[in-house]
Specification:
Distance between the termini: 60 Å
Oligomer: single chain
Number of domains: 2
Strand content: 15-25%
Mean pLDDT: 97
Number of strands: 9
Structural class: alpha+beta
Shape: elongated
Amino acid sequence: MKYNELITKIKNPIFSLHDLKMLDLKVYPYQLSNWVDKKYLIRLKNGLYVISIRKENLKNEFIAHNLYQPSYISLEWVLAKYGLIPEMIYNCTSITSKTTRTFKNAFGAFIFRHVKKELFFGYKEEVYNNQTYLIAEPEKALLDYLYLNSSKINNQDDVDELRFNYSSLDELSYEKIKKYSVKFSSKKLKKIINLIF
């Protein structure tokens, strides 16, 4: 198969080897490697590619969604998006019920932190330019972050070092935080929430 045929048959900017199989497209591994070398394709991970001419306007959230499933965007990425922390975040952070993983490619580093299946909730679907992904509600992103970093947060000084933007925290639903936090069954998390709020 020629590259021009491939991009005619595949409409999405991202495709996998599984997509090729489902569309019954005969593409050999050496062809994919050759197209990566020629910069026609960008390899996201083994078996997952971006069509270079469609890379503009690709959201990191959408790339993360395609890299590792099940997952939803959360943690520092969402805290920064909602102005809850002042830092610029360059690595897209997600929650997964699978093993913790990090993928590095031309678009940056994509970090996936593991939580047990019972904690895989509190997210919504977003669509941007036909790119669909799952993203945590700000309250859940905060709880995910505090829960996964709870070993480093022991007192008010530790909380202060997190440099939360308290005017943005005030906009969150405390009722939702309380309701969601119960599902974590963590006394330490409850203590940290009391220090913050």
